[in-house]
Amino acid sequence: MLAKTVRIVPQARAGIVERFGKYKGTLPAGLNIVVPFIDKVRYLIDLREQVVSFPPQPVITEDNLVVSIDTVIYFQVTDPVTATYEIANYIQAVEQLTMTTLRNIVGGMDLEQTLTSRDEINTGLRGVLDEATGKWGIRVNRVEIKGIDPPPSIKDAMEKQMRADRDKRALILTAEGQRQSAILTAEGNKQSAILNAEGDRESLILRAQADREAAILRAQGEGQAIQTVFQAIHDGQPDQSLLAYQYLQMMPKIAEGSANKVWVIPSEITKAMEGLGSSIHEIAGIPRDATPRTRVDMGASEPQLPRGSDDAETRATNEAVQEAIAAAERAARPGRTARSIDPAATATEPDPLSGPADPPAGSTDATGPGAPAGQ
């Protein structure tokens, strides 16, 4: 009797008590006292949220294709008395209601829309189930579609379609990539050609300007060189003997070279020799007192020995040379007016360009033995 009087109801449960087969009350969680043999706990209802997974059900789409759809429903009992006395098996009722509602919703969609509109199907199912199960004391929280399986033939066709679509996209992307590459390559070649042309133009302009300036500078240099040489010649007051001497100095260069087999002597060589001879004999030579009006700076010359050097050997040599020159002049002085002079005397006659002039009669010879070295 004690066991039938005291009833313990677990947490999140509700006990339906009947008295003589009629609803008496609802027992909450915890310790409860009932009348033994009169009151009876008929049902123990779970008030927690429950999850029910339904097996796949065949559904026909708008384009007459059969697909298998399996769903999951999350619901909770809000009124234990209504869930007990308004419907015999609320889980089965929810399952059948879900299948019928799902057929109605999917029947208005084609296969492509069915596969891509899961959120729309879930929302439609939840609205219909929540409205229908409210009078049963049940609240539907969520409805989820686990999977949609089309027939194998449709799967194969969809795979082929998807593969073809992917191939088309790949070809389009490849063509667009090649077009962009060709465009960029052409633009790069264009810019490169433009830059090369501009570089060539600037290079030609700069090269032409440099050639022009070089030609101008070269012409100016040649003009200044000719002017300098011409001025130096006029300042030096040259005569025919000097020109003849320069002409004779250039004669050996004509014979230079291993390919010269025959050497033709110009006819002007005799005139040059005559002029040079006349300069030696002072008939048509350079005047003694001819000096250039302008002295050209020829740079540093070789160092000269100081006057009055104490070197005995050098002084003796200079005295011997001066004595030889004086003896040659005394020997050649009696025959200066005749062209048929003794060859030996002519050979010893000093050169007016290098030796001193004859002193006048009755004067003292400056190149005598008593002259200092380097005089």
From TrEMBL:
One Pfam short name: Band_7
Keyword annotations: Membrane, Transmembrane, Transmembrane helix
Domain annotation Band: ranges: 4-162
Chain positions covered by the region annotation Disordered: 285-375
Bias (Low complexity) ranges: 317-338
Cellular location(s): Membrane
Membrane topology: Single-pass membrane protein
InterPro entries named in the record: Band7/mec-2_domain (IPR050710), Band_7 (IPR001107), Band_7/SPFH_dom_sf (IPR036013), Band_7/stomatin-like_CS (IPR018080), Stomatin_HflK_fam (IPR001972)
Gene3D superfamilies reported in the protein's UniProt record: Band 7 domain (3.30.479.30)
Cited PANTHER family: STOMATIN-LIKE PROTEIN 2, MITOCHONDRIAL
Family: Belongs to the band 7/mec-2 family.
Protein name (Swiss-Prot/TrEMBL): SPFH domain-containing protein
